[in-house]
Write the structure tokens for this entry.
Amino acid sequence: MRALAADDPALDQPGPTRVGLVSVHTSPLAQPGTGDGGGLNVHLDALARGLAARGVQVEVFTRRDRDVPAGTTTVTDRYRVHALDAGPAEATKDELVNHLCAFVFALARHPAVADLDVLHTHYWMAGWVGRRLARRGGPALVQSFHTLAATKNASLAPGDHPEPPLRLTAEHRIARDTDLVLCPTSAEARDLADRHGLSEQALRVVSPGVDHDAFHPRGRAHAATVCGRRGATPGTAPLGHHDGPTLLFVGRLQPLKGPDVAVRTLAALAAADPHGPGARARLVIVGGASGSGQGTTDPARLRALATELGVADRVELLGPRPQQALADCYRAADVVVVPSRSESFGLVALEAQACGTPVVAADVGGLRHAVGPGAGGLVSQPDAGGFAAALCPLLADPQHWEQASQAAIEHAARFTWDATVEGSLAAYRDALAARHRSDPALAHAGGSPEARSAPRVAAHPAG
């Protein structure tokens, strides 16, 4: 697909004045890192705030659950969150498919839907909902998948459950029936084009951003003190009574994210670097149990694994943290470890780099885009031994660490939420133009069979 330039005709299309964002399974008001909250929550909130700041009325539709009561929350003058009553509040994410029809009916009846110009659905369940509204000649439909079932199934953790055929089928139909699909990277856009036969006109690449007011390298020494660590020189500063470097894992505690790999990496460092700083390293885990992580990668199981491997005294588990406290954790760490089995983008990696902390991540999916050259490293063999080997040079050589830290800061600076919002607005204009050119009841992204040939994909600028 083409990149959007400043003089692109699409930018002359009338922009939307009212946009609906739909996320069935999690709310932008939820704490990332707990339950089903994560990068999607951060993305939704940043997008909604950015659109509202540009004069767009933003209506976010999510589902009432145990933490979010039914009703409307006004976040800013032009940004509201509506929690719809659709199924039991205690329903799990895996059970929500049984309540999607109830969500469709609740959404269709909601008064804020009637005047929407664009409906931007997030994750496949929201796309399933939006597809049904679009059939009724509703607003232009834009979809962001965030994760793809086929990609997840190709890289399952041992013992994890594959995504069901229902989701695979639903994602195919959503991709074909949506006015535009937004992708975080050009690699995902190419994957969607190949799997679903989408045309260049059906895809846009708009990368997520990072809040540089919250995530920045300033005050690393202060952050270290806040997190219980004095000083900021890798491998030398004590953490309480601990005198080794600090590794940090941030994310939901589920097999897909690999917190167990992080614990095993800590143990492997002692073997890889028996007389160096790696043998004295400590691992801090920030996040809460989620989904299939119960009983496999939840806090109790991770503590048991640390005990089994003889590193329990060097593993600390913290609950999810709000943005500012999380930024302090990033700044207090020597290296952030991201051992995800698959990752559509990897917002944790981007936030850590914005704080000046190198990242060692699995060489998968969007992490190849999120981790900058020289900003840590990508591990092609994402097991404990591979991560330990990649970490040793960063922990042992302060000069190498300083170079990686600077590269991380420079890479993260390219990504801003302002750019994400502007890219999304341009995509909305294109979706509106496509809808206006066609019968609303028949408009879809796939076009004619001839138009569905796989495109050459070029990314929207990150910043």
About this structure: The two ends are 18 Å apart (CA to CA). The chain has two domains: 9-209+417-452, 220-412. Residues 220-412 form a domain with the Rossmann fold fold (CATH 3.40.50.2000).
